[in-house]
Amino acid sequence: MVLVRLLLYGCDYLLLYSAIIRTDAGIYILAAQFLTAHILLYVWQIVGLLRACDRYQKDYGSASVFWAVCFGIVVSFVFTASTQFSLVQVAFKKPAGIAQSKPAAPAYQLRHEDTFIVIEGEFTHGLTRELESRYLAAKNVTGVILESHGGNTFVGRGVAHIIRKHGLDTHVVRDCFSACVTAYIAGRTRTLGPAGRLGFHQYRIASAREIPFADIKREQEIDRAAFAAQGIDNAFLERIFDTPRTEIWIPSAKELLAAGAIHRIGAP
Question: In total, how many domains does the chain have?
């Protein structure tokens, strides 16, 4: 029974992290798996195990094996309930990213301004694809102007990837916070308007439920390494990720220049 249950738990975890559980067919696969593996087969195993214990007790007169088996059944039930609960959560809810979850409609706008593409609004799903399309269609884009209070960290990385890939400059006229800064730092030449501000803080998961194996520190280290590769001072990086996730650290222009976060103040 133990080997069979371990095999089924392994199948549960493979299903939990597979893409199919998040499709429309996921709920049907989950129901079929639960009915066969955790209702019919589980009950059959428990009944057979208890009968074997009963025979053992009659033959040898010892109740210790019976109670050990009961303890094992309770443990296996807890593991089964835990994995099935996680599977139900994933099947019925979309997984959240770090920072803000996907909105019903795009909360960003893209437009052209001379040789720049201007990004305004929240960093949400679809932004990376649209930025790449606009860059390829325009032919003469040299940089990106950013105006955002943040959004999804992974979208910020996607925008940063496009900026690095095409060697684009970045410029901020007003505010660029959180995930927006991830994109800004990727710029070849980084400029800041006289009223421009960059805002930093620790990462967070925008989800009311626990996300299995989510590692905020590891995600922060990924972007920390990317910032360091762009020439940002180490002491400045320490301050970035020391700022609580509920606050925003907005360094002065002087601090940004000294740390290498920006190259100059003024027009792009």
Answer: 2
